Hints:
Elements: H1 2-18, H2 21-24, H3 37-40, H4 45-51, E1 58-61, H5 68-78, E2 82-87, H6 93-110, E3 114-119, H7 126-137, E4 142-147, H8 151-154, H9 157-161, E5 164-167, H10 173-185, E6 196-198, H11 200-210, H12 214-226, E7 236-238, H13 240-246, H14 259-273, H15 277-289, H16 294-309, H17 315-330, H18 336-348, H19 357-367, H20 380-387, H21 425-451, H22 463-471, H23 473-488, E8 498-504, H24 511-516, E9 521-526, H25 529-539, E10 549-551, E11 566-571, H26 573-578, H27 581-590, E12 597-605, H28 609-615, H29 623-635, H30 641-646, E13 649-662, H31 666-673, H32 678-683, H33 688-699, E14 706-719
Helix pairs in contact: 6-7, 10-11, 10-12, 11-12, 11-13, 12-13, 14-15, 14-16, 15-18, 16-17, 16-18, 17-18, 21-23, 28-29, 31-33
Amino acid sequence: xxxxxxxxxxxxxxxxxxxxxxxxxxxxxxxxxxxxxxxxxxxxxxxxxxxxxxxxxxxxxxxxxxxxxxxxxxxxxxxxxxxxxxxxxxxxxxxxxxxxxxxxxxxxxxxxxxxxxxxxxxxxxxxxxxxxxxxxxxxxxxxxxxxxxxxxxxxxxxxxxxxxxxxxxxxxxxxxxxxxxxxxxxxxxxxxxxxxxxxxxxxxxxxxxxxxxxxxxxxxxxxxxxxxxxxxxxxxxxxxxxxxxxxxxxxxxxxxxxxxxxxxxxxxxxxxxxxxxxxxxxxxxxxxxxxxxxxxxxxxxxxxxxxxxxxxxxxxxxxxxxxxxxxxxxxxxxxxxxxxxxxxxxxxxxxxxxxxxxxxxxxxxxxxxxxxxxxxxxxxxxxxxxxxxxxxxxxxxxxxxxxxxxxxxxxxxxxxxxxxxxxxxxxxxxxxxxxxxxxxxxxxxxxxxxxxxxxxxxxxxxxxxxxxxxxxxxxxxxxxxxxxxxxxxxxxxxxxxxxxxxxxxxxxxxxxxxxxxxxxxxxxxxxxxxxxxxxxxxxxxxxxxxxxxxxxxxxxxxxxxxxxxxxxxxxxxxxxxxxxxxxxxxxxxxxxxxxxxxxxxxxxxxxxxxxxxxxxxxxxxxxxxxxxxxxxxxxxxxxxxxxxxxxxxxxxxxxxxxxxxxxxxxxxxxxxxxxxxxxxxxxxxxxxxxxxxxxxxxxxxxxxxxxxxxxxxxxxxxxxxxxxxx
Length: 726
């Protein structure tokens, strides 16, 4: 036994003497360890844990030659625990169980902990890692694993969750220079006993090509020293030429299944997204040099053409596909030309990720409860006569610009915005038109609510009411555009004009001035907080510089010196009752001048539900009481132009009648007659018998619906110039 120990000791001494320089020069203490100051600097967690012998389960990961195994051995030198090590390339479950059994005996017999170091731990398969888990869990062994791979992908999740992970980075040049100096001066393990002279240029070359790998650096130094003949005085001179021969090419760290593979392709794609052609070519060259499959690169560029360029340049997909086809035809090395051409095209063209709106739509498909196809979009060839499928659909080609507002989304999702065009390229040319159409559609929902007496207090707090409004969007969108054209028809805009929009319930009334007065600006006076919130949502569709100014608290927010060339707005039945015209009139006088033009469009109902039913031929005398109340209520709606005329505004007035068709259904009665509804409040006490009759009449209306007369009046005026006194 003694002889075996002596032989083993002698063998160990021989192994150390003949070991490569990189192995002989391994640091034995934290003070000798170079680099990794991010985790080992004074006061850092790992440094404190090693010195205090309180190292728990660790997984060290990083590229080769940065000190993972060395750090584990330093832990062994600082710990009072027994240190065992395995190499996952050579060891199996049998070896693992043997180490665990020995650790159990040491713990039970001597109370001695065991640190088990497993090099290349990612080489253990899933079964081997599972076999280790229970002993790590109960503290039989403390695990230190080393891996060049990402532990989150290559190591058992249970082991990862029970360990601290430390990432080691490639060594900095200054750290490598210190390693060189130590190797040249260390008399025990390095070349301190030999006269080695390393030129500065040679040292810089070795450090540069080593690329942060200490093992590669020391192996190159060893080759240079051992292959050089000493001079007559015993000196070994290492010149730049010798250094270049010793380490001729930088090792490209690239594992097609590891972090380097994913990190490099990630850097390449992000360079394309960032329009950095130089960086894109660099990462492309790195992948080509490392032997990456060009088909994989083309596949990722096709994805980038859709994800990062999209409709800013629809030709991007075509170019990449054509280059991929050219590569298949010509092969390597000439195929590198179309490969680089595709990358440069993607890096140089406009970018947009608006196609990601598809995934918002996909989320809505998964989350939305109601996804019914609206009746007017259904196939009318099968049962349209029986259920009304397809009825009400309007053929876009029959309208100007081959477009007409109507509902295409499911009712519950009407008003959702999934695609927001970017400002550049193909989609940028269409952005303004798309924004205007969407704003008009969003506006139609809010404006319809304000047109009808039953919806006097409508707002976003009533989801059922909002859904009812949305069902009217397809019918009412065109109507609102016609009213907008009446409001602003014939206006000769100047680019520097300033425009004030009154009674702003939506963005639709500001669309014309927003386009026409970019150098002047548009200000919108909101009637309520809900209206402001709605408009704030709408103007998100506009470019920042085109967005109007919103006034929440009234014209008092404006400087007294600010005057407008145009003041206009559209007022609904609700506005006619809620707005304080006697206060607004004098305020407008302060913010106008002799050149200001006033354009006011008012819309008021000429009948309530009882009056509308009587007009349909209903002969119930019980409705007469409600009819009289409705007439008094409607008569109290005073037109605002009377107030403005009192303030000195003179002009013309145009009036016309429109009949609004309200669709049949239970919602029609519910919105008017529900407890606490605006109509019930306006009518005061209603006899229960009359209420029940009115509900029965409304619910019994046929498919033709209820016809509600609406009166529109447009007032166009200018303020009289003040009369100069003699």
